[in-house]
Amino acid sequence: MHNDMMRIQDHVELRRDLNNDAVIDVDTAAYEKYLKTKDSRRQQQQKVNNMETRINNMEADIADIKTLLVKLLEK
Length: 75
What we know:
With 75 residues, this protein is an alpha+beta fold. The chain has one domain. Helix content is 63%, strand content 19%. The protein has one helix spanning 28-74, and strands at 5-8, 11-17, 23-25. Strands 1-2-3 form a three-stranded antiparallel sheet, with no helix packed on it.
């Protein structure tokens, strides 16, 4: 595969695939960093979603408690 690729001038991390003319980034460290960042963002978004769900559940519980207190005070 590497025989079918040519370095792109002034771009150490880029190669041109001679079979299909595609430009390929061969900087594996940058790609791994990108994957870690992407995973970190996904985890952060999941935390936010979980907190939002918990808050919504607490709001519903508080509304239920409020309704029960009003009924209790009416008696």
